[in-house]
Amino acid sequence: MEQILSSFQKLHMPGMASCWKIINETHQTNKLTLKDGLELLLQSELDNRQNNRIERLIKKATFKQMATIEELDKNESRGISAGTITQLSTGEYLKNGTIIIISGPTGTGKSFMATALGERACRLGYRVRYYTVQRMLDELRLARLEGHELRFFEKIEQLDLLIIDDFGMKKLEGQQQNDFEQIIDDRYHKKSVIISSQLAVTDWYSIFSSEMLAEACLDRIAHKSIRIELKGDSLRKKY
Q: What is the pTM of this model?
C-alpha cells in the first residue's frame, strides 16, 4: 500500500495520493471494484488539478480585495438586479466579448462587484487581470521606457477579462489617451472588459483631452455594453 502511495507522489499525482490514503484509512481497499477505485482516483486527481488551476488564475488576477458573487447584496434599491447577476454568473458575456460598465458614487460597491465577477470568471477557467486605471497606465509607461510596450499590449489582449477600476479618477493626458484607446480597440468585440467609475458614461468625455480619441473610445465602450448603476449610501459606513 505504501509503495502505491509513494508511486503516486513520485508521479506528481497528489489528488490520487490523497484519495488512495483515504481509501486505505477507511478500509475500502477490498470493498471497491477495480473500476470504481480507478474512477475515484482519477476524479480526485482531476478535481485537485482544477482547484490548483483556479487558485493560479485568482492569484494572477491580482485582485485588490477578495469578493465572490455569493457575497453581493442583490438589492434592487441599490441597483443590483438578482437576475442580472445570475446571468453574468454563467460567464456567457465572456464568450461574446461584452463590456460591462459599473458606475455609482463612492462606497457603493463598484470595486467589490467588479472583483466578484472577476473571481467567478477565474472559477470558470478564464484568464483575468484587475487594474486600477492608474496602475495599468503606470505599468505601460514603465514597459515603454524599457522598450517592452508591444509585449505589454499583447499580454493585455490575451486576457479573457480585463478589469479597469477607478476610471475617471484622473484625466488622461497625451500618450495615455492613445494607450487606453489601443487597449480598448484591441479587445473590441473579442475580449471582455469591466470598467468601474464614479462618473456616469455621459460625463466620460471630460476624462480625455482629445475629443477625437474620446469619441473613438467611448463609441466602442458604450456600444452594446451592459450598464450597472449602483445607488444608495456608502457601504463603508457599516464598518
A: 0.85
